[in-house]
Amino acid sequence: MKQKLIFATGNAGKMKEIRAILGDLDVEILSSREAGVQADIVEDGKTFLENARIKARAIHEITGALVLADDSGLEVDYLDKAPGVYSARFMGEDTSYEIKNQAIIDKLEGVEGSDRSARFRCVIDAVFPDGTETAEEGTIEGWIAKEPSGNGGFGYDPIFYLPERDLTTADLSAEEKNAISHRGIALRKIRPAIEAWLEAQK
Ligand code: IMP
Fold first, then answer.
1. Gap between the Cα atoms of 29 and 35, Å rounded
2. Is pTM, for the whole model, over 0.85?
């Protein structure tokens, strides 16, 4: 029987990215929802790593399986790295990204060029069935755009501008974004640990 890998998220967009990068491994990849796990997890960590650990450990405790969890967000240097770990909660969870993105553009009124620097950060934590744990981080650097652009991606992608390519991450195809994104980088970094664990189960 195939080993199971549970990713502690209900976010379909994240599951697509995970399957694109880890889908060829000899493991059944399930979201916590697909695994039938219901958990009310309070993400009260102060860092991406703390929050990723909180999520991964909570689902591991319930299932005993190999569990991965990520925590990610946007850091805007001019705003002292806000919204950071509060990216999803910035201006309220239910506020549209059209409004959130415009608010960030407005806060950077009059700020030019590299002073608009920002990054997406993603930390992925893996808890193995024996309780051992490892984490990896990926980042992608960019600037805050002066106006939103693109229909791809989600969240802050329409305002995350890549100056060297003169487009936003919302202008990229899913494949192009996976190849350079913070989450893609973190997933590819954590992949060898999963491969080693799968090898050891044979
Ligand atoms: P998480 O699901 O707790 O990791 O929250 C991450 C939040 O950060 C998302 O709700 C988005 O607001 C933002 N975010 C993280 N990754 C991305 C991305 O790739 N594009 C756009 N926004 C992102």
1. 9
2. yes
Amino acid at 164: E
pLDDT tens-digit series, residues 170-186:
999 999 999 999 999 99
Ligand 1 neighbours, Cβ below 6 Å, are 70-74, 87-88, 120, 153-157, 181
Separation of CA 195 and ligand 1 centre (Å): 26
Q: CA dist 198 to 26, 27, 141, Å?
A: 8, 8, 33
Return mean pLDDT, the chain. 96
**Torsion region of 33: left, alpha or beta (phi above 0 gives left; psi -120 to 50 gives alpha):** alpha
| Residue to mutate, 7, 87, 173, 181, ligand 1, most ligand atoms under 8 Å from C-beta | 87
Q: Which residues contact 42 (CB under 8 A, 6 or more apart)?
A: 54
